Amino acid sequence: MQNFQVNSIGKISVNERGMFIELEPKYIPALQALDGFSHLNIIWWFSDFDNKEARNTLETQQPYKKAPAVMGIFATRSPIRPNPIALSVIEIIRIDYEKGIIQIAYIDANDGTLVLDIKPYTPSLDRVEAPGVPEWCSHWPQNLEESRSFNWEDEFNF
């Protein structure tokens, strides 16, 4: 098994002013030319679930109400996984290019969560027009915008 070294490029900040990605100063130049992109792919670390037990959990009991009784971790969006890496598509509200701060609409990460990488969301590479999903989640929203008003609490068993 090969080990990899991954370094954070910044962190998530959640406070009374909103949600932000705050870059380490050395990564601020990497923001150049993001003007015009409305969304980003954020790769971040599920740090609250980085322990031996979570990394060795490969199956889980029905996390979603309409899902199968037992699911493999790779069939879930659970933070409990062999490598606690998360991927979220986020909407950009504003970028402060001088301070290296990206204000975002929402991310399901905690304050202080480490950010590993940022990639621009591009429909030509990231969007699938007609994705297939299992029947148990086929009633979920078809896009990020519809997800805002969807009652997600009715879907989970946790």
Summarize the structure.
With 158 residues, this protein is mainly beta. It has helices at residues 52-55, 123-126, 144-147; strands at residues 10-15, 18-23, 39-45, 59-61, 70-72, 85-96, 101-104, 114-120. The chain has a single domain, classed as Beta Barrel (Elongation Factor Tu (Ef-tu), domain 3).
Describe the structure.
- There is one protein chain.
- With 158 residues, the protein is mainly β.
- It has one domain (10-154): Beta Barrel (Elongation Factor Tu (Ef-tu), domain 3).
- Helix content is 8%, strand content 30%.
- It has three helices and eight strands, in the order βββαβββββαα.
- The strands form two sheets. Strands 1-2-7-6-3-8 form a six-stranded antiparallel barrel. A two-stranded antiparallel ribbon has the order 4-5.
- A hairpin with an 8-residue loop joins β4 and β5.
- The longest helix has 4 residues, at 52-55.
- It is globular.
- The model has no long low-confidence stretch (mean pLDDT 95).
- This is SAM-dependent methyltransferase.
- Pfam families: TrmO_N.
- One of its GO terms (molecular function) is methyltransferase activity.
- It comes from Alkaliphilus flagellatus.
- Residues 6-130 form the TsaA-like domain.
